[in-house]
């Protein structure tokens, strides 16, 4: 674990909100809700664990029923529904054809408002997924167990590609489209992908971005790390027309629309796979520099996201569901693609920025498509509120249900969301979970619990959290004390391991509170989430933020170590330290402190070089708020950088006692530099 003295946690600088009042879900919502049975919590109590999760698995269609619900023989790498055979693509597409082939799976909204919406029915999805699966199998030579990296924006071809992989048992690893080519290359290498699937370009914030250039960089970076990419498959934003100026590399790069012609009408049987086989890898940031590939299995994951999409997202067949997250993050995988599609939902897929060309864009889409379930993150809510607090009332849309996910939501922002966006008519769920957990861990059940602004709520059925202090004592609900929130039991949505690094999986997530490292009993292995939380008397959990060195920027997880190593690629930089600073819209943004090699003076060029390095290695989402070039870092006598002190300076809070530092005088000079006299 992190050295208490040197690390700053978001929890330490988290806003401590007071207890808020309750808001009750509207009767109209309750009357139609999928889940109103309080007995579900008993049915999924620890007494009925793990068999209780059959309730979710039964929502799926299996080729073969499982014989072992939870296999703990390789603890803590849990395997769910062992003996069962299943295909995720079949569950999301084929099985709906009989009744719903003419129903929209996706309503695709391009960013340019003059481009028509595109409706993709389940039949159309079936055809496109099959043709692509045929291409992936026969042209790209992919088979079950191979990894393939996707670096795609929010276009229908992204879920189509994921489903085609799932059909074959190919493990997809989608890298968020906004990540740099270099970040993509690193993930290609780590996952051992020899195929990269990308797009030539996409619209964002009024610009048609050249995305193909990232592929060229990614392939080079992967090659330097020892991974050869044989083929780059490029989806064109406008088939037949070229968006990117980058030339296609002969024998390596292929336009998907060209190659697909040879696969017209092809049908590929979904591969019947063991339930515990992997479905995808999703990289996320953690405590050490390298991003970690969370590996999710087919049967458990799909059962969990389907169950929670049904009960917590309250998706019905006739609903129009819009999750505004990017599919490149776990929210999009679980609650745009797999969960909703398994339920034969109709989902909106939006290419662009919800405030472009103006603050009314999101609400025009909601009005036109008659969206009634809306799912987004606090950072977007803050952005929409800032851009146009009165905009929602100008449009005729009515949400029955709204979600917030990814970071704590300030009660004031929550109230705007409830009153203005929800027009007081919607049930809101604040869903707390992680890339690692596959699906929701805590949330109110929308028709059963009152909402409390700023609180995620009670745990999900079948999820049994516990808050531990540093020594492993339980912190009781209502005690007003924060601690490390853990989950006592495994659940089907949980990731199976870190790709290629089982040791790190055990170390990061289980070691701290493990009761017996040789145990095969799940009770000895509480899952360590890395978040600080408190539980109030009513049992609601309030998540305070990460306790490790992860910064949650606009709902995106960034590891401070990743940012620091990008800074250190600038030749003049000797030391770098990154701390989270509060931001009105993004929640947190990184502030960067660097000290220089001897013989260099602070200048604008070095500043710029640091920003560029971050954009190159990670992406624009990681852009710092400030770069401060400091004479020296505040250090302990053992030479460790005191991030806590820098964070306090950035956030204008008390730096605390610095007298024991090796160089206390530097603190005041940094403070002056940052805050002025
Ligand atoms: C934070 C996103 C407060 C938390 C699904 C977690 C939240 C990290 C909430 C995971 C919430 C997520 N309230 N904090 N409702 N949801 N978080 O992996 O710190 O991108 O550990 O998954 O986001 O981020 P990730």
Describe this structure in words.
The chain has 677 residues and is an alpha/beta fold. 28% of the residues lie in helices and 22% in strands. The strands form eight sheets. An eight-stranded mixed beta sheet has the order 12-11-8-6-7-14-15-23, with helices on both faces. Strand 24 (527-535) and strand 25 (541-546) form a beta hairpin. It is globular, with a radius of gyration of 24 Å. 57% of the residues are buried. Residues 1-16 have low confidence and may be disordered. The structure holds 5'-O-[(S)-ethoxy(hydroxy)phosphoryl]adenosine. The site of 5'-O-[(S)-ethoxy(hydroxy)phosphoryl]adenosine has 23 residues, from helix 12, strand 20, strand 24 and strand 25.
| End-to-end distance | 37 Å
3D shape? globular
Helix count? Answer: 20
Instruction: Tell me, rounded to a whole number, the average pLDDT.
Output: 94
Helix content: 25-40%
Tally of DSSP β-strands = 30
Strand arrangement within the widest β-sheet reads 12-11-8-6-7-14-15-23
Write a concise synopsis of the structure shown:
With 677 residues, this protein is α/β, with parallel strands linked by helices. It contains 20 helices and 30 strands.
Q: Keywords, please?
A:
eight-stranded mixed sheet; binds 5'-O-[(S)-ethoxy(hydroxy)phosphoryl]adenosine; single chain; 30 strands; alpha/beta; disordered N terminus
């Amino acid at each position: 674990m992190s050295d208490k003295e040197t690390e700053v946690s978001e929890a330490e600088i988290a806003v401590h909100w007071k207890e808020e009042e309750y808001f009750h879900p509207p009767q109209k919502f309750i009357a139609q809700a999928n889940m109103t049975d309080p007995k579900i919590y008993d049915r999924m109590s620890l007494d009925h664990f793990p068999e209780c999760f059959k309730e979710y698995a039964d929502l799926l269609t299996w080729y073969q029923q499982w014989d072992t619900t939870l296999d703990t023989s390789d603890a803590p790498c849990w395997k769910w529904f062992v003996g069962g055979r299943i295909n995720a693509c079949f569950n999301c597409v084929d099985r709906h054809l009989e009744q719903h082939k003419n129903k929209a799976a996706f309503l695709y909204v391009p960013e340019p408002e003059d481009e028509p919406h595109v409706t993709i029915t389940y039949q159309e999805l079936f055809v496109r997924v099959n043709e692509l699966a045929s291409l992936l199998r026969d042209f790209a030579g992919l088979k079950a167990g191979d990894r393939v990296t996707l670096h795609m924006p929010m276009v229908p071809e992204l879920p189509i590609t994921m489903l085609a992989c799932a059909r074959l048992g190919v493990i997809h690893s989608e890298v968020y489209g906004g990540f740099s080519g270099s970040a993509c290359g690193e993930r290609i290498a780590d996952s051992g992908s020899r195929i990269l699937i990308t797009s030539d370009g996409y619209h964002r914030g009024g610009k048609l971005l050249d995305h193909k250039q990232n592929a060229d960089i990614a392939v080079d970076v992967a090659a330097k790390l020892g991974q050869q990419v044989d083929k780059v498959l490029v989806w064109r934003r406008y088939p037949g027309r070229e968006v990117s100026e980058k030339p296609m590399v002969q024998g390596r790069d292929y336009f998907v629309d060209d190659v697909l012609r040879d696969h017209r009408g092809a049908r590929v049987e979904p591969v019947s796979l063991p339930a515990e086989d992997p479905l995808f890898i999703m990289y996320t940031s953690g405590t050490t520099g390298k991003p970690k590939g969370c590996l999710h299995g087919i049967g458990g994951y799909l059962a969990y996201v389907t169950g929670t999409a049904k009960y917590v997202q309250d998706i019905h067949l006739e609903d129009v569901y819009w999750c505004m997250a990017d599919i490149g993050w776990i929210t999009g995988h679980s609650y745009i693609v797999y969960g909703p599609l398994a339920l034969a939902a109709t989902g909106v897929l939006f290419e662009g920025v919800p405030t472009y060309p103006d603050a009314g864009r999101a609400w025009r889409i909601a009005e036109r498509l008659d969206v009634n379930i809306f799912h987004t993150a606090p950072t977007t809510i803050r952005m929409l509120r800032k851009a146009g607090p009165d905009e929602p009332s100008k449009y005729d849309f009515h949400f029955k249900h709204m979600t917030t996910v990814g970071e704590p939501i300030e009660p004031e922002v929550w109230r705007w969301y409830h009153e203005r966006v929800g027009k007081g008519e919607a049930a809101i769920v604040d869903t707390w979970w992680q890339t690692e957990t596959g699906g929701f861990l805590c949330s109110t059940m929308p028709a059963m619990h009152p909402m409390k602004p700023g609180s995620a709520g009670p745990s999900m059925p079948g999820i049994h959290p516990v808050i531990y202090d540093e020594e492993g004592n339980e912190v009781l609900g209502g005690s007003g004390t924060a601690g490390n929130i853990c989950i006592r039991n495994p659940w089907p949505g949980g990731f199976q391991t870190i790709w290629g690094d089982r040791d790190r999986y055990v170390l990061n997530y289980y070691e701290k509170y493990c009761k017996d490292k040789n145990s095969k009993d799940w009770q000895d292995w509480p899952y360590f989430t890395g978040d600080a939380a408190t539980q109030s008397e009513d049992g609601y959990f309030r998540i305070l933020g990460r306790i490790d060195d992860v910064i949650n920027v606009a709902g995106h997880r960034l590891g401070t170590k990743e940012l620091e190593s990008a800074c250190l690629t600038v030749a003049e930089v000797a030391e770098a330290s990154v701390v989270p600073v509060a931001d009105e819209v993004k929640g947190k943004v990184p502030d960067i402190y660097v000290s220089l090699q001897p013989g260099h003076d602070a200048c604008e060029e070095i500043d710029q070089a640091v920003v560029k390095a971050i954009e190159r290695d990670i992406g624009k989402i990681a852009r710092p708020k400030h770069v401060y070039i400091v004479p020296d870092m505040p250090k302990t006598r053992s030479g460790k950088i005191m991030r806590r002190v820098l964070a306090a300076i950035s956030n204008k809070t008390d730096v605390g006692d610095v007298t024991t530092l090796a160089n206390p005088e530097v603190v005041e000079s940094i403070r002056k530099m940052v805050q002025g006299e």
